[in-house]
Design a protein that fits this description.
The protein is an all-alpha fold. It is built from three helices and no strands.
């Protein structure tokens, strides 16, 4: 979360630069979501990189192999939820900044 401000600026910049592609249509929304997914994949990688040591410590303290596998599955699900949520938020931010550049039409 320490780089959140930079991701906001990246998506506002994408909206300013790609105003002819990111529109409030089905295809424009898909383009905005695809770009947000690409950018936010690195953000989730940063989250994973910071959380990985704590996960490994938890896995070492797991009661059984099955419990450790369950922890890994839950961890992956949480990361995927974070990726989806962040991608949706930032796709909307990209579309709103594009709308501001185009004048709302």
């Amino acid at each position: 979360m320490r780089y959140h401000f930079w991701y906001v600026l990246i998506h506002i910049g994408l909206g300013v630069v790609g105003y002819q592609y990111f529109t409030f249509t089905n295809l424009g929304g898909i383009y905005a979501f695809a770009v947000a997914l690409l950018v936010q994949a690195y953000a989730v990688f940063e989250i994973h990189r910071d959380a990985r040591p704590k996960l490994e410590a938890t896995l070492r303290g797991a009661e059984s192999f099955k419990a450790a596998e369950r922890l890994k599955v839950d961890y992956r699900k949480r990361l995927l939820r974070v990726l989806f949520m962040r991608s949706c938020m930032y796709a909307l931010l990209t579309l709103i900044s594009t709308m501001a550049v185009r004048g709302g039409a």
